[in-house]
Specification:
- The structure is a single chain.
- By secondary structure, the chain is an alpha+beta fold.
- It has two domains: about 5-80, Arc Repressor Mutant, subunit A (Orthogonal Bundle), CATH 1.10.10; about 95-255, Endonuclease Chain A (Endonuclease, Chain A), CATH 3.30.870.
- About 50% of the residues lie in helices and about 20% in strands.
- A hairpin with a 2-residue loop joins strand 1 (about 55-60) and strand 2.
- The radius of gyration is 25 Å and the shape is elongated.
Length: about 260
């Protein structure tokens, strides 16, 4: 392969990735290779020649195996394909965001997409409520105040010992102080509720919950009609990214000690 010949490499990976996948973990002879990719012998022969010419595949005793170049290239191909698939799967939800919003694809890979439907209009809300009930420690940066969840948070903090770290904007804080003052004061008095206000733009809600099954994250998106969807994930990379976003809001925020 010529140095810098990225177009050829990309095109070959797209066209011949099945052969590389078949040789991913061990040496494979030509007959087994043909069976694994479900292609004709002539097709496999052409694929092998192309991959050998690019240095992605090499002949060895007993068959063919990936080279180090082949392994690195195929892993990047898989990663890119997985991330593009995650974007496509999440498109109906994240399309509500403006193009300059900071969101990492790692939060989308392997995620559960929860969108309101006619049959299940409160699916995302139910997921969040269950997550609140399961959590020992809950971190959230919220775009809006949802009264039933205020009551649920209050009960979990005051009666069940959950620790809650919440960041929100001025508008939501005003709603909490005017409409949920009693719940807010009682929860703050426990010392397990930390509330912060930020001037930062909050384009979507971010949550990380520590549960007995491990940490989970979710991000929620709103449109003019309410919650457009929630993306939930328990992958460590996704959770780490969500914690970083929460840390950013927290660092830029101001702690509220009383309403």
């Amino acid at each position: 392969m010529k140095r810098g010949d990225v177009p050829t490499l990309r095109a070959t990976l797209e066209r011949r990735h099945a052969v590389l996948e078949a040789t991913e973990s061990n040496v494979v002879d030509k007959r087994d290779l043909t069976d694994r990719v479900s292609a004709s012998r002539s097709t496999v022969d052409r694929a092998v020649r192309e991959l050998e010419q690019l240095g992605l595949l090499e002949r060895t005793n007993g068959g063919y195996r990936q080279t180090i170049i082949g392994t690195l290239a195929f892993n990047e191909y898989k990663r890119a394909t997985e991330r593009l698939a995650a974007i496509a799967t999440s498109a109906d939800v994240i399309s509500h965001l403006p193009p300059d919003v900071d969101i990492d694809v790692s939060g989308l890979v392997g995620a559960e997409i929860l969108v309101p439907t006619q049959e299940s209009p409160f699916r995302a809300m139910s997921y969040m409520n269950d997550l609140i009930r399961q959590a020992d420690h809950f971190r959230i940066c919220a775009t809006a105040v949802i009264p039933p969840q205020v009551e649920l948070f209050h009960r979990e903090v005051v009666k069940n010992g959950m620790s809650l770290e919440a960041t929100t904007g001025q508008e939501s804080l005003d709603v909490l102080a005017s409409q949920h003052r009693e719940h807010m004061v009682e929860a703050l008095k426990t010392g397990r509720y930390e509330l912060f206000i930020t001037d930062e733009r909050i384009p979507y809600g971010v949550v990380v919950a520590k549960t007995s099954d491990g940490p989970k994250m979710c991000i929620s998106f709103c449109d003019g009609d309410g919650i457009a969807g929630t993306i939930a994930n328990d992958d460590p990379t996704a959770v780490a990214w969500a914690n970083e976003r929460l840390d950013d809001y927290l660092e830029a925020g101001e702690r509220i000690s009383s309403p």
